UniProtKB/TrEMBL annotation:
It comes from Paracoccus homiensis. It comes from the Bacteria. This is Holliday junction resolvase RusA (Prophage-encoded endonuclease). One of its GO terms (biological process) is DNA recombination. Transmembrane segments: none annotated. One of its GO terms (molecular function) is magnesium ion binding.
Amino acid sequence: MIVARIILPWPPSNLSPNGSQKGLRGKRASARAYKATCAAIMREKGRAVQKLPAGAVVERVTLTYCPPPRVRLNGYDFDNMGKRMKQGLDALAEAIGVDDGEWLELLQKRGERCRDGAVIVEIEVGE
């Protein structure tokens, strides 16, 4: 059963592990800012993500990547995007109250392009 569907912003390119490691402070600041943005979206009235009850089993978290027009389709791959989404997934884990190490499955998919880019997150919980 899908319990939540959230649309998060496209992660900043400097969170890519494949990029230059110059300006590590800038990367750290971007990581904090992206996590804070994702957490704020999950707390927004009308889109708030509810904490799951104790003992809830997160069967699957699906990430659908909808890149912005300026990103080449082969300009990102799943291992890179997974690492760029780390802060967003940490914010999600805090919002639902289930550590991401306890999720049973993480599925990544390519979606349609959208104006500013987005990552659609769906959370499925077992009965």
